[in-house]
Specification:
There is one protein chain. The chain has about 425 residues and is an alpha/beta fold. The protein has 8 helices and 33 strands. The strands form 6 sheets. Strands 1, 4, 5, 6, 8, 9, 10, 11 and 12 form a 9-stranded mixed sheet that branches. Strands 15-18-21-24-27-30-32 form a 7-stranded parallel sheet, with no helix packed on it. A 7-stranded parallel sheet has the order 16-19-22-25-28-31-33. The protein is globular. The mean pLDDT is about 90.
């Protein structure tokens, strides 16, 4: 049996329903980010930069693109004979077979995978956060405190603390109390959903809680260990960390990449973010084009005007088109004269000539006001928006739409046009 000091288990099975049509056909960790990356690239890059060379990626919802992207782990130097990256979907077992029903249940169903490496420590990660973190420093903290569990926490504004699992810790990091989304938070240290467990402690807890419905780390495993007097410590992280779980935070995190001094720097030599790079030609900016403060992907051709935007690989922006404060994912075509303002356009879509995406007043979305908000106009993947139509704000459009789908040539703010049958 090969022994590894620490292995990582990366939870990447989430649907990410608050990202609306962006996750209709793809798991949240596989959503494009920053022009050339996918969200899962960040925790995977953190692993290899931290010296963690054994990663199990637990997939469930719409895993095809995620599996294709990860492959055998070559971009992250995780193509190893021993360890490396392994995709772990739910599988049929003797007796009771079930989908992953909670974060801890998913880990429990892969006990055999973890046991095969006989680790001293297991690092539990989420596949849907944007951040850089050296897990080795966290492991040193875990060891120096002789802890059973270390929970990564970060300070959040006190007024936002009720949205998180809150940890109350003493001066040397020992956890005194937990509060799950409390009405009156006793601290502002929010759990980041990143844990290091001493392996025997994790294994015993998972086995003891195996009958627990929808077994979850925050709700079940951590309280269970706390009640049994295990040593739990809080590892405080003060770097950049963003949960891109809503369309607003996803748009914001992308826009922060193009700040004059970006809060999150993709250009650091010593902490690279790796991704699967397709073999495509370089970008082309024509003599008529105007590009201001934007990220432009490889293979993209710009003939129009791009301001303050993130443009993915293989995009064509035709002459006279104007793209402002927007995210355009790979292989989209923005036709001549189209105007996009605070729009998110998913992969493989086409915006027709002289169409406007993102205009008019902001009114709450009629069907999903908590999802389609923030003044954004969202276009799902492989969507066709015809020529000469106008699409308002807090809207979603998906599927092969035709002029007849737009009464008076427009989709009013707060409406949804779903020709792909993906908005439930």
């Amino acid at each position: 049996m090969v022994k590894k000091e620490m292995i990582a288990m990366l939870l990447a099975g989430g649907q990410g329903s608050r990202l609306g049509v962006l996750t209709a056909k793809v798991a949240k960790p596989a959503v494009a980010f920053g022009g050339k990356y996918r969200i899962i690239d960040f925790p995977l890059s953190n692993c290899i930069n931290s010296g963690v060379d054994t990663v199990g990626v637990l997939t469930q919802y719409q895993p095809l693109r995620l599996n294709t992207h990860i492959g055998i782990g070559i971009p992250w130097d995780l193509d190893r004979n021993v360890g490396g990256v392994t995709v772990l979907p739910p599988y049929e077992q003797v007796g009771k077979t079930e989908w992953y029903t909670g974060t801890a249940n998913a880990i429990y169903q892969n006990l055999a995978y973890m046991e095969s490496f006989n680790p001293d420590y297991v690092l539990i990660l989420s596949g849907d956060h944007i951040y850089k973190m050296d897990y080795e420093v966290m492991l040193d903290f875990h060891k120096s405190h002789n802890a059973d569990v270390s929970i990564a926490v970060m300070p959040v504004p006190q007024e936002e603390a009720n949205r998180f699992g809150i940890v109350v810790a003493d001066g040397d990091g020992k956890i005194r109390e937990f509060q799950e989304k409390p009405e009156h938070p006793k601290s502002n240290l929010a759990s980041m959903g990143i844990y290091i467990f001493s392996w025997p402690v994790l294994r015993d807890a998972l086995v003891s809680l195996r009958e627990q419905e929808g077994c979850d780390f925050g709700k079940h495993v951590i309280p269970y260990l706390w009640e049994r007097g295990k040593s739990l410590v809080a590892y405080e992280f003060n770097g950049y960390w963003k949960d891109v779980g809503t369309l607003g935070s996803y748009w914001e995190a992308n826009m922060e990449l193009i700040d004059i001094i970006p809060e999150f720097n993709l250009y650091e030599e010593f902490w690279k973010i790796y991704t699967k790079n397709d073999i495509i030609p370089p970008q082309y900016i024509s003599s008529d084009a105007k590009v201001y403060r934007s990220l432009i992907g490889d293979g993209t051709e710009v003939y129009g005007e791009v301001t303050n935007s993130i443009i993915g690989n293989g995009v064509t922006i035709e002459k006279g088109a104007v793209v402002r404060d927007s995210i355009i994912m790979q292989n989209c075509v923005i036709k001549a004269g189209a105007i996009l303002d605070k729009a998110i356009v998913a992969e493989g879509s086409e915006i027709g000539q002289r169409s406007v995406v993102g205009c008019g007043e902001e009114v709450p979305n009629k069907v999903k006001p908590s999802v389609y908000a923030f003044g954004l106009a969202v276009v799902g993947e492989n969507t066709v928006v015809p020529d000469f139509v106008k699409i308002g704000r807090n809207t979603a459009v998906t599927g092969n739409t035709v002029p007849e789908d737009y009464p008076d040539g427009s989709l009013a703010s707060g409406e949804i046009l779903d020709k792909a049958g993906v908005v439930s």
